[in-house]
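[job 4417] fold queue: 2 targets
>>> target A
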Amino acid sequence: MSGRSNDKQSLSRYKEMFSDLVNEHYEMKFDKLLPTHNGGSESEGHDLAKVISDYPEKGVLSSIMPSLETKLDNTAFLVAFITSAHDYSLSGKFDKEEADAVLKALFSKVVASFNIESVTSSHHTRGLYGGTSGYDGPSNNLRISPSLVVKLIQFADATGNDSTKLINTLTEYTLDVKEGTEESTFHDFLFPVANGICAHIDTTERSSTGSERRFMKHMLAKYVRDYVKKAPPSPPPDWKKKTTIRCICLNCASLRDFIDDPSSTTKDFALGEKRRNHLDQQIDKTFFTTTIVRANPHKLRVEKTQALLVSDFKAWVARVQIANSVLDQLSQKGYLEDMLGNQYHSILSHQNLVLPDDLPALPAPPGLRNMVQRTVPAKRPFGQ
């Protein structure tokens, strides 16, 4: 409750300051310029620029600069405001000379205090392929959208601003990716940013910068090394046959899910005797052990032994399949080889990405298409 109270007090002071400035210069009421808003989200940054663009008198952007400078901890809000205000200046909504000066000053301050994540959370869940796919339960973890980061880089190029500090922040974030968060960080943020940078370079036909090349090299090397990882020990040659459950009943489907889950080592199945016996008959005892847990009803406890090797191996195979698809998509960008230089082949042909020749046929990882599509930054139409 105290946090919400502080937010309201801060917002109230912000509104007062902004209202005084507007009233002093234009005799307008603040409420007409800025409807209810907490000053923190990306959408609110876009909305603020749009609302102010309805009052395009010269000086309005300069007058709100002090208020915006109090919000430097809200990176997404300010980046959205900067990029939208710039778009409006190009369409004649603001005085371009004033907009360029104000947004350039604000850009340098935002980049110097750039926050990719505004709040962190320790409650993460394990992903399907041995990484993390998100957070369980309520979370305040807010990561700036990759499309907004790309938009800021485009703004910097269009206005002659130096994006080196921003790119260096991305590199530092890449090098600090924590174990267990790789799946979400790479696929939902870093790859969309990388794809966006490559697409922007391709569109503008400019050369990549030293900081962009450094970011790309570190990001891809860490992805292959820390997300894909080295191949785990191979399971026995007959592993597929002895860990494949062919029965399609609901109980066996649950058993199959347990086998395929790399994070699960033991599972209890509370079933009647007939169903317990049926399940027990499907299990190869060279890969699993089973015991009866006395309860009401009794439970069949299934524990992975050799099957642990199978779970780890199949999870690695899935990560390799995903990584090769994602990297193949990125490598289609004409400038990637130039950016990576002599590391291009060593990264894209890394031994962690090579599947064994004798790998039995396996289905593609669930959601592979969606996983690859996640790595492409969404495009925001003008004015939204």
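>>> target B
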Amino acid sequence: MNEHQNHIPVMLEETLELLELHEGQSVVDATFGFGGHARKVLEKIGKNGQLIGFERDEAVYEIVKKEFKQPNLLLINDNFTSLRENLEKKNITEVDRVYFDLGISMFHYLKSARGFSFSKDEVLDMRLDSIGPSAADLINGLSQNELADMFYTLAQETYSRQIAKAIVTQRRSEKIETSAQLERVIAGVVKKRGKINPATKVFQALRIAVNDELNNLSEGLEQALDVLKKDGLLLVITFHSGEDRIVKQFFKRKSQEGFLKLENKKPVFPTRSECLANRPSRSAKIRVARRV
């Protein structure tokens, strides 16, 4: 079995319904991943449509480009912050639909060996590409206050200052270079909270910071709006409050400016049955807006 065959796309049926897909449309999948949503989108738009998929992670891109051979699919190994530039290079000026699925795939937690998960002893990297500092660079290079602010701001970690102090104390004697090392430092400060591992929020904050996820999302939304045709739809699936806040505020601001019309004033949530069958879906929300 391939390492991604157990990947289950989140809120697939809701996404397809909300995108209102038709034969011949041009669609951008800004976060292609292993193509869970893309397979069904390609069926909906047919051979006369076109799907342009962006995948930032080169390892994932190399896997999916061997698997997806559809002639109406254009796969691009790049961050969606370069969405507009890449479309211009392909002489694509506007598209009918753009969608983002901001979840991190199970491949990254289970197979990438980059330290995304505290349940494995791996090099503390967390980068989706090779650009910028790694998680270990931040853990060993930021000041105590900078670490504490990062943990609290990006993941609402209430023990952010105690954890930051423990990290700085530990790294004076030994650099923290693996996920297991970091998990042990956190466990020495914060006791287990129910079923939630005390390292969960710190690892989330690190991943967000390393990949500049929130700034990238803001830029990606702006570029998506730029390439959308009139009456085109922009759909975003978020998984934590930081992402959802950015999308909500962007949609509200652009609707007030007359560029977007909200399709759903309240976000769409997964069904209870999906939450039970696919645990990563539990925190998912969909927001949709129409270009005017």
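[job 4417] complete. Note on B: The first strand starts at residue 26 and ends at 29.
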